[in-house]
């Protein structure tokens, strides 16, 4: 039987599933409010009382961030996220970096090299799309200067990276 709310695919698909303790819907709504091309696709409630919450409360949220499908589940207990998995957002402009950084950082913790943990402990990397090109140059001295500049940053500054590349 097919699910009419899910598009047909030609094979398996992979979607990250984020675990929350009662605030999956709040987190999903927060994320989609910040990231362009995002939306809440479906909210599934608990049909019976369960470790995830009482009947009628949110069990899971299917949502799309920048065209990528995600699921947020209320798992019934707090689970800690680690840096072993992070969500990378590549931005075209410094203004995009600043807006997403400031939004996701609300209630969270800044970290080095464009990383932050949001208020739920999810690790994010907010980076300029140009970073890959600056590091991929065959001129290893330029790439090393960019990397050294990056190591000194918390929120990434694109112009500072370009100045480092130029020497």
Short account of what is shown:
This protein is α/β, with parallel strands linked by helices and 167 residues long.
CATH topology descriptor of the largest domain: 2,3-Dihydroxybiphenyl 1,2-Dioxygenase, domain 1
Taking the alpha carbons of the first and last residues, their distance comes to 61 Å
Overall strand count: 8
- Unreliable spans are none
Question: What fraction, in percent, of the residue positions are helical?
Answer: 25-40%
Q: What structural class do the secondary elements suggest?
A: alpha/beta
How many individual helices? Answer: 5
From the alpha carbons, calculate the radius of gyration and give it in angstroms. 19 Å
Describe this structure in words.
This protein is of the alpha/beta class. It has 2 domains: 17-74, Signal recognition particle alu RNA binding heterodimer, srp9/1 (2-Layer Sandwich), CATH 3.30.720; 87-166, 2,3-Dihydroxybiphenyl 1,2-Dioxygenase, domain 1. Helices cover 30% and strands 25% of the residues. The chain contains 5 helices and 8 strands, in the order βαββββαβββααα. The protein has helices at residues 24-34, 94-105, 130-135, 140-151, 158-166; strands at residues 17-20, 39-45, 58-65, 68-74, 87-91, 109-110, 115-117, 123-128. The strands form 2 sheets. The protein has a 4-stranded mixed β-sheet, covered by helices on one side. A 4-stranded mixed β-sheet has the order 5-8-7-6. The longest helix is centred in the middle third of the chain and has 12 residues, at 94-105.
């Amino acid at each position: 039987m097919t699910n009419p709310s899910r598009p047909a695919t030609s094979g398996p698909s992979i979607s990250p599933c984020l675990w929350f303790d009662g605030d999956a819907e709040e987190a999903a709504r927060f994320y989609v409010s910040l990231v362009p091309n995002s939306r809440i696709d479906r909210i599934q409630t608990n049909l019976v009382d369960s470790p995830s919450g009482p009947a009628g409360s949110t069990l899971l949220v299917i949502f799309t961030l920048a065209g990528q499908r995600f699921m947020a589940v209320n798992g019934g207990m707090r689970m800690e996220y680690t840096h072993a998995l992070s969500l990378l957002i590549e931005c075209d402009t410094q203004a995009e970096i600043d807006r997403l950084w400031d939004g996701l950082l609300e209630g969270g913790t800044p970290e080095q090299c464009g990383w932050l943990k949001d208020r739920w402990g999810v690790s994010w990397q907010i980076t300029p799309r140009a970073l890959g090109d600056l590091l991929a140059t065959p001129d290893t001295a330029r790439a090393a200067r960019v990397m050294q500049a990056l190591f000194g940053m918390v929120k990434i500054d694109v112009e500072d990276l370009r100045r480092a590349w130029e020497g």
